[in-house]
Design goal:
The chain is mainly alpha-helical and 619 residues long. The strands form six sheets. It has a three-stranded antiparallel β-sheet with strand order 3-4-5. Strands 1-2 form a two-stranded antiparallel ribbon. The protein contains 22 helices and 13 strands. The protein has one domain: Glycosyltransferase (Alpha/alpha barrel). Bound molecules: alpha-D-glucopyranose (GLC). The site of alpha-D-glucopyranose has 8 residues, from helix 5. It comes from Brachypodium distachyon. It is an enzyme of class 3 (hydrolase). Invertase that cleaves sucrose into glucose and fructose. GO terms for molecular function: endo-alpha-N-acetylgalactosaminidase activity; sucrose alpha-glucosidase activity.
C-alpha cells in the first residue's frame, strides 16, 4: 500500500462517477459524507459511450430508478445526445490515435446488442472433485466478505477486510491488480457476474479526466483503484446516492500512474471471454475502444530507443520507490501479455489493421529484446564479466555499455550452473540484476521467454527454493537492498527496510502466478510444493499481506490481515492445480511467426542487431 490518503469529498466530487443513483432513506448512514451536491458530471465522456447499448451513467436522470443494476441494460430514459463521432472526442488528445487507430475509416459506432453471457458449461468450470479443506472453506467465506456492491450489484473486492484494524488507509478500495486473482477464483467457480460488472465499470472510469497540478495524463489510463462512496443528494440529507470514485494515482503518495492497471484489465477481459464463451463482451464498441485507448498510451512514439515501456518507479505492484524506474521487467511482461491478448480480441476491420500491424511489430521487437538482453545465466554472466566497454559500433558486444564491475558480489555465488532468469531492468550502463518474481513468472506464462528460458527460470526457483520460497512463497524480489543502497535507492523508506515489504519481503499472492507458470511448463508438482507451504501458515496467520525476514518467517511488520489477494491467490492456485486446463485462459503459446517479424529486416540500411538465428531464439 502506498499510503494513499482517503480522498476528501471535494476531490471525490470532482472525480467521482455516478453510474447509478438510488434513493436511500435518510436514516441510512451517509458514511460521514457531508458534502453539498456538487455536480459530479465527468468533463470528458468516453468516446464511444453512447446511449444505444449501455446506460450513459452520468446522463441517467434521478427519476429513473429502475434497471440500474445492469450496466449494459438499455436505458429507460432518453439521455442527452452525445457527439457520436469518437474522433472529435479524442482529437487533439491522442495524435497517435488519429494516425494509427483511426486511419480513414472508423469502426461502426453502433453498439452491438448486448447478449447475456452464455451460461458457463460444466466442463469449463472448476467444480471441486474433492471436498474442500477447512482452509479453503474459510478462504471462500473471507473472499465473499470482501465483495463490494454498487447499486446492489457485486463489482469487486476490497484490498483487505480486517475487522480488527481501525486505520483503513486505502485498503477499503478495489484495486485493479488485486482484483485479478479474486476474479479468477470467481470465474473458475462459475460466478462470472462480478467480473463482468468489474470490467464494465472500470471501463467507464478509464475516460475520466484526471489532473495533477493542471496536467492531464492520457485518456487510456485505468485507475489504480476505486471506491464506492455514498453521498447525499441534497442538503437535507434525505436521500443519498452511490458514486464510484477512482484513484489514478493523483492521491497516491508519489503521484505515480498505475501503468499495470490497463494491462491487467486487458488480460482479465480475455480470461473472462475465454472461460464464459461470452465473446460479445470483447466485441462491444466501447470495450474495443477501451482496449485501443490503453494501447494508444503504450504504443505512442516517444524518444525511446527500446521496444520496452519506459515508466517511473512505483508504477506497478511495487508502488513505492524501489529503484525500478526505467524498463522494469514486470511492466514489460504484462505489456507483452496485454499485446498478445489484444491481438486476439481486436475486431479486424479497415480501422484496426494499422493497429494490429503496430502490435505485431512491437511484439516481435519486445520478445527479441527481452530474450536477448534481459536473460542471464552462468554463461552470460561470465560474458558480462569479460565485457569491453566504450564500444562505438553496430557490432558492439556490449551494446548498453555495461561496466563489468556492476555484477553484484551476491550474484557471483548465487547463479546456479543450470537455469537462469530475466534481470529486473536494463538501461544504458545499468543492469538491475535483482530477481523479480512477478516479471519472471509472467514472462513464462505469456511466452515472452523462450521455452528453454522458461524451464531455466523454474529450475532456478527450484534450486534457490530456500531463498525464494523458504517459509512462505514467494519473495517479491531477491535480494534485499541494504545500508547505503537502501538509503539512496528507497530514500530511506521505513516500510521498505531490508527483507520487508517490497524490499525482499514474501508475498503469498504471488503463489497463483507461480502456479500458473508451473502448469504452463508441465511442472505442477513444484507449485503443489509451494501451495503446501502456504496452506500450513496462511489461515493461522490470518492471511497476511506479506511476510518479513530473509526466509519469510515473520508476518510483515506493517502487514494487513485478511488481505484479499492473499486469500484469492491461494484459492486460485488450488483451483488451477485441480483444473490445469483452465490455465489457458491466461497463458499464451509461443508464436514462431513473431520471430520472423524483425522490423530491421525490412530495411537494408539498418544493420540488424539480431545476430542470433531463429533457432537460437527458439532453442
Ligand atoms: C500495496 C501493494 C500494491 C497493492 C496494494 C493493495 O500498495 O504494493 O501492489 O495493490 O497494496 O493491496
Amino acid at each position: 500500500m502506498n499510503g494513499q490518503t482517503t480522498m476528501g469529498l471535494a476531490a471525490a466530487a470532482a472525480a467521482a462517477v455516478r453510474p447509478c443513483r438510488r434513493r436511500l432513506l435518510s436514516s441510512v448512514s451517509a458514511g460521514g459524507a457531508k458534502a453539498s451536491v456538487t455536480p459530479l458530471f465527468p468533463r470528458r465522456p468516453h468516446p464511444q459511450h453512447h446511449h444505444h447499448g449501455r446506460r450513459l451513467p452520468f446522463l441517467a436522470s434521478a427519476a429513473s430508478q429502475t434497471s440500474h443494476s445492469d450496466p449494459s441494460s438499455t436505458p429507460t430514459t432518453t439521455p442527452t445526445p452525445v457527439n457520436s463521432d469518437p474522433r472529435s472526442a479524442v482529437a487533439g488528445n491522442l495524435p497517435f490515435f488519429d494516425r494509427v487507430l483511426f486511419p480513414g475509416s472508423f469502426p461502426p459506432v453502433e453498439t452491438p446488442p448486448v447478449e447475456e453471457p452464455a451460461p458457463p458449461t460444466d466442463e469449463g468450470l472448476a467444480s471441486p472433485v474433492r471436498e474442500e479443506s477447512e482452509t479453503e472453506r474459510e478462504a471462500w467465506r473471507l473472499l465473499r466478505r470482501a465483495v463490494v456492491s454498487y447499486c446492489g450489484e457485486p463489482v469487486g473486492t476490497v484490498a483487505a477486510e480486517d475487522p480488527e484494524c481501525t486505520e483503513v488507509a486505502n485498503y477499503d478500495q478495489v484495486f485493479i491488480r488485486d482484483f485479478v486473482p479474486s476474479a479468477l477464483a470467481f470465474l473458475m467457480r462459475g460466478e462470472t457476474e462480478i467480473v463482468r460488472n468489474f470490467l464494465l465499470h472500470t471501463l467507464q472510469l478509464q475516460s475520466w479526466e484526471k489532473t495533477v497540478d493542471c496536467y492531464s495524463p492520457g485518456q487510456g489510463l485505468m485507475p489504480a483503484s476505486f471506491k464506492i462512496r455514498t453521498v447525499p443528494l441534497d442538503e437535507n440529507n434525505e436521500a443519498f446516492e452511490e458514486v464510484l470514485d477512482p484513484d489514478f494515482g493523483e492521491s497516491a503518495i508519489g503521484r505515480v500512474a498505475p501503468v499495470d492497471s490497463g494491462l491487467w484489465w486487458i488480460i482479465l477481459l480475455r480470461a473472462y471471454c475465454k472461460i464464459t464463451g461470452d465473446y460479445s463482451l470483447q466485441e462491444r464498441v466501447d470495450v474495443q475502444t477501451g482496449i485501443k485507448l490503453i494501447l494508444s498510451l503504450c504504443l505512442t512514439d516517444g524518444f525511446d530507443m527500446f521496444p520496452t515501456l519506459l515508466v517511473t518507479d512505483g508504477s506497478c505492484m511495487i508502488d513505492r520507490r524501489m529503484g525500478i524506474h526505467g524498463h522494469p521487467l514486470e511492466i514489460q511482461a504484462l505489456f507483452y501479455s496485454a499485446l498478445r491478448c489484444s491481438r486476439e480480441m481486436i475486431t479486424v476491420n479497415d480501422g484496426s489493421k494499422h493497429l494490429l500491424r503496430a502490435i505485431n511489430n512491437r511484439l516481435s521487437a519486445l520478445s527479441f529484446h527481452i530474450r536477448e538482453y534481459y536473460w542471464v545465466d552462468m554463461k552470460k554472466i561470465n560474458e558480462i564479466y569479460r565485457y569491453k566497454t566504450e564500444e562505438y559500433s553496430h557490432d558492439a558486444t556490449n551494446k548498453f555499455n555495461i561496466y563489468p564491475e556492476q555484477i553484484p558480489s551476491w550474484l557471483v555465488d548465487w547463479i546456479p550452473e543450470e537455469g537462469g532468469y530475466l534481470i529486473g531492468n536494463l538501461q544504458p550502463a545499468h543492469m538491475d540484476f535483482r530477481f523479480f518474481s512477478l516479471g519472471n513468472l509472467w514472462a513464462i506464462s505469456s511466452s515472452l521467454t523462450t521455452p528453454t528460458q522458461a524451464e531455466g527460470i523454474l529450475s532456478l526457483i527450484e534450486e534457490k527454493w530456500d531463498d525464494l520460497v523458504a517459509n512462505m512463497p514467494l519473495k517479491i524480489c531477491y535480494p534485499a537492498m541494504e545500508d547505503n543502497e537502501w538509503r539512496i535507492v528507497t530514500g530511506s523508506d521505513p516500510k521498505n527496510t531490508p527483507w520487508s515489504y517490497h524490499n525482499g519481503g514474501s508475498w503469498p499472492t504471488l503463489l497463483w502466478q507461480f502456479t500458473l507458470a508451473c502448469i504452463k511448463m508441465g511442472r505442477p508438482e513444484l507449485a503443489r510444493r509451494a501451495v503446501a507451504v502456504a496452506e500450513e501458515q496462511l489461515s493461522a496467520d490470518k492471511w497476511p499481506e506479506y511476510y518479513d525476514t530473509r526466509s519469510g518467517r515473520f508476518v510483515g511488520k506493517q502487514s494487513r490481515s485478511y488481505q484479499t489477494w492473499t486469500i484469492a491467490g491461494f484459492l486460485t492456485s488450488k483451483m488451477l492445480l485441480e483444473n490445469p486446463e483452465l490455465a489457458s485462459i491466461l497463458t499464451c503459446d509461443e508464436d514462431l511467426e513473431l520471430l520472423e517479424g524483425c522490423a530491421c529486416c525490412l530495411s537494408k540500411r539498418t544493420r540488424c542487431s539480431r545476430r542470433v538465428t531463429k533457432e537460437d531464439i527458439v532453442e
